[in-house]
Structures
1.
Amino acid sequence: MDAIEKKMIPGEHLKFLRQKCGYSQQKVQAAIGINQSDYSKIEQGRRRPTIDQAISLANLFETSLDYIYGLTDMPGPYPRRNGPEFDVTLLIHGENNWSNIFWKR
């Protein structure tokens, strides 16, 4: 897959999802708070969504970031957790020196 094809994937997937849901570009841009012109550029492959925009789009279309960015062809969402599965405690010793990671279930 060349760079042009990779750039088009988010746009193609988002257009597919938008049409599947019966939404206009205006409805999508209003739902996620993005300029309609910018959203149109995303669908055309002339712009990529920011991570915050991609998360909002994934939630709106009930899909995964992997699908939006072309890492999978499965448009369904991953199962979501209701809460944290585990707690992480980090003990930091000195600047930028991470050690002793404890996982609790």
2.
Amino acid sequence: MIAGPTVILLLLGLSGDHFFWAASGRITKDAAIPALSGAPVIRPNAIGTAAIALGLMVTAIALCMRIGWLRVPDVPLADDFIRACAWLIAAVVTARTVGDFA
């Protein structure tokens, strides 16, 4: 009962951070970008950062649907689609985590 709302709030917070950075926000951006010998490893652009923000927001919405906070009325197979989306999200997050440690 606590995990779903907690993850949704975290995803919305991360989405907000990414939208802020996409709009040229500088606060905490340096801490969020990995560096090697003082040089940034990646140089994210505004469009890519906004796409990540949108993806995080869509993920939060899908999880809201999965736990029953949002309903999609009269759509055939909506529950199966949302369940598949939840598993896809889990797979993407797992792949991202494994990639960080590989």
